[in-house]
Write a structure and sequence with these properties.
The protein is α/β, with parallel strands linked by helices and 318 residues long. The chain has 11 helices and 12 strands. Helix 6 (131-137) crosses helix 7 (139-146). The radius of gyration is 19 Å and the shape is globular.
């Protein structure tokens, strides 16, 4: 039986995983992929940020793919493998707070999954600007690099040549055998990340001898997700001004900010993406006639006052 290759896309919050996924889905490769997107938080946004392609997207919310929803992952994979139309491959984009070890473990502990799929590689996207800080305060960031078969050292345009060299040295001290590609906005040839047959179980067992039997995984409990939503249009100047001020004042605590917003008197979706104090925002695709024009804004970070954020968000309603 032909095994379906599976590529796991991982990396810390805001590193660029969805950007990489969209690059894969928009390339002219003639292949059909199933996509599994996992988010940290009850409101799904990443699924809507994935480009509208022929590929099917399966969304798993409100849990980490490496713990509470792992059973969902096994069920999704089982359903995909029973389909008659078939896929050339499966892409799994994990939440930025996922330890990739239990995700990879899934492909060896479930008999049916192991028989019908092949874990091709773990591809980790690394934010060159913030990775050193993340390695100081996040066990997940360390694990994502340690388990990577391929690393995209992304956002290289945001650091100097000396800083980039230091970051690469730090990565090599954690994972000496990984392949590193320096990128801006995850621009890389698909042959560098797909079909690599790079996952090496022996290497993983050398890192974690109990890899195939471990079932414990802990997250940083200080990190929480706050999800805000409204079906009333927002004032563009007010929401932009508030977010800019908030990120200047609280950017160190806000690991990731992302949203799809409905702005008064605008026909297009306003997409906001931020990592710490760095924010990008732009109007993207038009709202569909049959689509509910609802604003969804997600903050992931530490020391978050949900009630205060909700009050300030509501003050931006037009």
């Amino acid at each position: 039986m032909n095994q379906i290759p599976v590529t796991v896309l991982t990396g810390y919050l805001g590193a660029g995983k969805t950007t990489l996924l969209n690059r894969i889905l928009t390339e002219e490769h003639g292949k059909k992929y199933a996509v599994v997107v996992n988010e940290f938080g009850e409101i799904g946004i990443d699924n809507d940020l994935v480009v509208n392609a022929d590929e099917e997207v399966f969304e798993m919310n409100n849990g980490c793919i490496c713990c509470t929803v792992r059973g969902d992952l096994i069920r999704i994979l089982g359903g995909l493998m029973k389909r008659q139309d078939g896929f050339d491959g499966i892409l799994i984009e994990t939440t930025g707070l996922a330890d990739p070890a239990p995700v990879a473990q899934t492909f060896f502990v479930d008999e049916d999954v192991q028989r019908r799929t092949l874990l091709d590689s773990i591809v980790t996207v690394v934010d060159a600007r913030h990775v050193v800080q993340r390695l100081e305060d996040s066990h997940e960031a360390l694990e994502q690099i340690a388990f990577a078969d391929v690393i995209l050292l992304n956002k290289t345009d945001l650091v100097s040549a000396d800083e980039l060299a230091q970051v690469e040295t730090r990565i090599r001290s954690i994972n000496a055998t990984t392949v590193i590609h320096r990128t801006e906005r995850c621009a890389v040839g698909l042959d560098r990340v797909l079909g690599r047959r790079a996952f090496d179980l022996d290497r993983i067992l050398a890192i974690e001898p109990e890899f195939l039997s471990e079932d414990d995984h802990e997250h940083d409990d200080a990190v929480k997700s706050v999800c805000l939503r409204t079906d009333r249009p927002l004032d563009g100047a007010r929401i932009t001004g508030w977010l800019q001020r908030l990120l200047v004042e609280r950017g160190q605590d806000l690991l990731r900010t992302k949203g799809i917003l409905s702005i008064a008197r605008q026909d297009k979706q306003y997409v906001v993406q931020a990592v710490h104090m760095l924010m990008e925002a732009s109007f993207t695709k038009p709202w569909s006639p049959d689509e509910t024009r609802e604003s969804r804004l997600v903050f992931i970070g530490r020391n978050i006052d949900e009630q205060e954020l909700r009050r300030q968000f509501d003050a931006c309603i037009a």
